[in-house]
Amino acid sequence: MLPHWLSLMIASLPSLAWACVLFTVPLTILSFAFGIAVGFATALARLFAPAPVAAVFRFYVWLFRGTPLLVQLFLIFYGLPSLGIVLDAFPAALIGFTLNVGAYSSEIIRAVLVAVPKGQWEAAYSIGMTWSQAMRRTVLPQASRIAVPPLSNTFISLVKDTSLAAAITVPELFRAGQQIVATSYEPLILYIEVALIYLAVSSILSSLQVRLERRLSRYGGYIEAAS
Amino acid sequence: MIILEAIDKSFQDLHVLKGVSLSVPEGAVTALIGPSGSGKSTLLRCVNLLEIPQSGRVQIDDASIAFSPSSKPTRQAVLALRRKTGMVFQNFQLFPHLTAIENVMEGLIVVLKWPRERARARAHDLLEKVGMAAKAESWPANLSGGQQQRVAIARALAPSPKVLLCDEPTSALDPELAGEVVEVLAQLAREGTTMLMATHDLRLAYTIAGNAVFLDRGEIVEAGPARQVFGAPVKDRTRQFVSSLTAQATA
Questions:
Q1: A223, part of any domain
Q2: What is the average pLDDT value for chain A, to the nearest integer?
Q3: Is residue A35 part of a domain?
Q4: Which residues contact A215 (CB under 8 A, 6 or more apart)?
Q5: Range of the structural domain that residue A186 is part of
Q6: How far from chain centre, in Å, is Cα A76?
Q7: How far, in whole angstroms, is CA B190 from its chain's centroid?
């Protein structure tokens, strides 16, 4: 005979896992992918665009880094309908997380782009590359290597932050846990189980990060200036 | 033939080049000498337009751009001119994420759109020429400075530029490693590669340059056959500078 806590955990695992697979993981992956795209565009604009355009993007980063994520989600889901913009819970969460990831990752991307020595741009230009060829072939490969650790941090934070989507009714992992608690009255057991699932997901992602880092750093160290 | 006409370049209020005119004959090596801050590097970088002059004219072959402070040259014109040049940097600037041979192939594949195999064959020939074929698959981080610079020379030569611009190609190297780079450049000179080379390295200039140009404070002080500029300079300023170089070299 299994102890009560274990049988409860086993009984609730399918619905928790389902919520994780159906909402937590897609929300994380999609908002990270879109967020990186927004972050890259923001970084480029802030580095290379004319001052007024750069200022618009700076304003965006300032706004989204300076306000709580939960407030942003509430504004999008509960606030925007007053302006006639009604979104379902999942798209609202997706937009909120994307803009949030975009703001944070833009600073990382900006920093790693700047970290590639100016001489690398010049070397690329000197063999006839255009700006976009130099960016794609020379700068990005080197920048992405140094971007992996900080962006992985953003990604893992995001996995956990998606639990905030529960507050705007997205039936993701944490909300699924809440619902089981509402009928089982076992918050300790259920929330431990929810925490363990988050832990498992972030651990898997961390190990992927290590692999990716190893792959990107196969060429050894940077060559700084003279020998 | 490379013709520079009345090149003017300022950085903010620092007037680096003051109407420099120079013609670099084809098939020969021209050394650009002068003290630090004389504008040698800037002049070199004005040839491949890593720096855009405020005024003057740059011509290489059939490509030419006239500069004026009021208008920017088109990207197309800049690329057309730049693609007639190759550049060797003081600090090599190999692409660290590519192997030696991939470094040499990069321009052929990305810029000239050559198929990979053809690019690899040409890159291999060039690495052979600079004595680096055995290290073709090495990462730059695992090469010595002299080896990196030789790969960088092969990379610059890959698209068959009209002129090879060398910006202090040996000054980041200790004498022994500089020696192997001088040897490679001397070989290229014998084969008739047109080169314009900024250098402090008297051995390099003596060994391979047919012509020399002495630049000081953004102006050409003296120009002529290298033997004359180094051996029997006419201007006092040149004499001072050459003797300071000789003192350095023998010290």
A1: no
A2: 93
A3: yes
A4: none
A5: 4-216
A6: 18
A7: 16
How many domains are there within chain A? 1
CATH number for A10: 1.10.3720.10
Residue in chain A nearest B142 by alpha carbon:
A220
Question: Interhelix angle for A51-65 vs A89-115, to 10°?
Answer: 120
Across the interface, do A127 and B96 touch by the CB < 8 Å criterion?
A: no
E strand or H helix that includes residue B20: strand B14-24
**pLDDT tens, residue by residue, A56-99:** 999 999 999 999 999 999 999 999 999 999 999 999 999 999 99
Torsion of CA B70, B73, B75, B79, to 10 degrees: -150
CA distance A63 to chain B (A): 35
DSSP state of B72: P
Strand order in the sheet with B195-198: B85-88, B163-167, B195-198, B29-33, B211-216, B219-225
Q: Is A225's pLDDT higher than 80?
A: no
What average pLDDT does this structure show over B112-133? Answer: 96
Q: Which of A121, A133, A223 to mutate to test the interface with B (most CBs of B within 10 A)?
A: A223
Helix (H, G, I), strand (E, B) or coil at B71: strand
Residue A102 inside a domain? The answer is yes
Closest partner residue to A223 (CB to CB) among B75, B96, B99 is B96
B169 interface with A at CB cutoff 8 Å: no
Is residue B154 within 8 angstroms of chain A, CB to CB? no
Mean pLDDT of B23-29: 92
Per the CB < 8 A criterion, the answer to whether A38 and A99 are in contact is: yes
Q: Residue B250's pLDDT band (boundaries 50, 70, 90)?
A: low
Residue of A126, A138, A226 lying closest to B87 (CB–CB): A126
- Judge whether A154 lies within some domain: yes
Q: Tokens 């050559």, residue? A: B114
Rounded to an integer, the average pLDDT of B61-76 is 92
**Contact: B107, A127; criterion CB under 8 Å:** yes
- Shortest CA gap A41–chain B (Å): 22
Distance CA B32, CA A53 (A): 42
Q: Inter-chain contact B140–A223, Cβ cutoff 8 Å?
A: yes
CA atoms within 13 A on the CB side of A73: 22
Name which of B109, B195, B115 is nearest B159 in CA terms. B109
Residue B89 contacts residue A122 (beta carbons within 8 Å) = yes
Residue A226 has pLDDT above 60, yes or no: no
Residue B172 CA to its chain's centroid (Å): 14
A141-189 pLDDT, tens per residue? 999 989 988 999 999 999 999 999 999 999 999 999 999 999 999 999 9
